[in-house]
Amino acid sequence: MLRQSSAMLSIGATHPGLTEITEDVREFVARSGIQDGLLTLFCRHTSASLLIQENAAPAARRDLEAYFSRLAPENGPYEHNDEGLDDMPAHLRSALTATELSIPVAEGRLLLGTWQGIFLFEHRRSTPEREIALHLVGE
Amino acid sequence: MLRQSSAMLSIGATHPGLTEITEDVREFVARSGIQDGLLTLFCRHTSASLLIQENAAPAARRDLEAYFSRLAPENGPYEHNDEGLDDMPAHLRSALTATELSIPVAEGRLLLGTWQGIFLFEHRRSTPEREIALHLVGE
Amino acid sequence: MLRQSSAMLSIGATHPGLTEITEDVREFVARSGIQDGLLTLFCRHTSASLLIQENAAPAARRDLEAYFSRLAPENGPYEHNDEGLDDMPAHLRSALTATELSIPVAEGRLLLGTWQGIFLFEHRRSTPEREIALHLVGE
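YS: structure for the whole thing
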């Protein structure tokens, strides 16, 4: 019989950019006891986001962070700047990436590919504590 | 015992850009009677999309709209232009943002963060009526 | 009573860019016997992604592929290039589009809009075989 499980994950990144959270998510799935189902992560912020990316090459992560810094730069022609120069680009980078991710679970494991990791993408320099809501439905 | 509820939301934006639909979604969740679960919104169009963004600062919304107008401009080197100059950029802006969003629900409430609102991102100037399919699974 | 169904779809694109997979997904939904629910597709790779787009105009698809080639070009200032010039742009194009998609199902049908198709967006020239995990919960 299907059931559900949920939790709130608090992540305080030590630096802007990508912080891997795959292990935290795996622990939640293991604790839930649900073997097969669908896991959803939801980032409760508009200046941080979620990303599934290569978990092997640090250079690829640095390139990805640098790319988004160029694509949505701090020195853009923004009207909204009363919360700091990094606030508006943070909203733009969030809009361009994911606020939520759903990942199937089978035999107690996230169906991530070999090279996939789950990352919090922190867009603010102040790296405030972030809440990621976790939801799992399955059996 | 888990059950599900669904509905079709019709939204006619009065202007291109962002239109907040959080209240419509909240009403659907309340009517469903489901207290804990997972809500999914699905935009049935390829020239409009969905976005979770800051619901407080109007300037941030204007900046976000202007940013996407620069990132996927009307005067790009597009081959497909027989449906209007705003058609191809509309597809591109849809591809860069979200066609669907899943949001956990707990104690009858969407687990949105304090500053998060759900928006329809209308990319066509003609602002046609849009259909957003809603699905909620939970108990 | 709610139940779930899952499968792994293997797709070998014959060319980089967009390959429609809507029919494969429809077959899975039909085989499952589930009439109403939520379907999720999850791409198990970091250099290919998923996209819902216009399924009618081939020119729109060509424009979309060309746009992402400009937005995340091969000749960018990337540090990570030991897996080929098309590897880093592949990660960036994946980050800008979707790794997963959830689509409501009603009366045995995906609630896609009239013009929407589901596409694998292959970002590598070598077009390796790709795995898309499918998950359906409903009744």
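YS: worth flagging: Helices of chain B lie at 22-32, 58-71, 87-96.
IM: good catch. Also Chain B has one domain: 3-138.
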